[in-house]
Automatic annotation (TrEMBL):
PANTHER family xref list: CYTOPLASMIC PROTEIN, CYTOPLASMIC PROTEIN-RELATED
Cited InterPro entries: Csp_YhjQ, YHJQ-like
Lineage of origin: Bacteria, Pseudomonadati, Pseudomonadota, Alphaproteobacteria, Sphingomonadales
Name listed for the protein in its UniProt record: Four-helix bundle copper-binding protein
Pfam family of the protein (one): Csp
Amino acid sequence: MSIRKMISLHPDVAGHNNEPLGNAVHHAMYCAMMCMSCADACSAEDMDMTQCVRTCSDCSDVCSATARLGARRAGSNEAVLKDMLELCARVCDACARECEQHDHAHCKLCAQICRECAEDCREAAMTISA
């Protein structure tokens, strides 16, 4: 089962190019969980990881909200969706930069998913006319 498939089956989006939005929603769902897990792992590290915990937690929340907005296709709120996708990309970039400063494997993995999510969110935002 795939959220990409679910979005493409929605009656209100038939005939539209749903692939970029489906990819963004897919990555945002995963990124939300990866960031939450990274924040949890950072909180268990022996060093002060307060900023990384905060950045990952914020990113998790923004990704989660973005995924929910992107999966709702009934009606129209394109301006908000486009703004949210753009915000998600910026927040993911910030989280990736923060995580890339640390040598922890969980931070490296988090940075990678954040970069992928940011790219997909930017691509999806470009396909939405607000």
